[in-house]
Design brief:
There is one protein chain. This protein is mainly beta. The chain is built from 1 helix and 10 strands, in the order E-E-E-E-E-E-E-E-E-E-H. The strands form 2 sheets. A 6-stranded antiparallel sheet has the order 1-2-3-10-5-8, with no helix packed on it. Strand 2 (about 20-25) and strand 3 (about 30-35) form a beta hairpin. The longest helix is centred in the last third of the chain and has 4 residues, at about 105.
Amino acid sequence: MTHYRWDDMPREQLMPGLGRRFLHGERAMLAHIYLDKGVVVPLHTHDPEQITYVLSGALRLWVGDAPPVDVRAGEVLVIPSNAPHRAEALEDTLDVDIFSPPRQDWIKKDDAYLRGGSR
């Protein structure tokens, strides 16, 4: 058993206007994602299934070929494994992302698409 306090965890700044804190167990990962209004998370894919729960603010997400969906505070979007997706913060936003299994690229800091590089 491991006990965490979000406020005690360092907040990683990935690119201007985008930060995160995350933790993981063997089979799941939990992250707080901090997005300033206007920030774009570039198009990407990953094997882990993603559940995005917006705590405050709003995100516009494009998933696969579906029309964009706006996800607001109190709403949840499930993103299937390997689905190409991107996001834009419509407001200053805090969301919780859950991944299963954990994102190895985040753990290894091999996530250039979030750090201003490409993937």
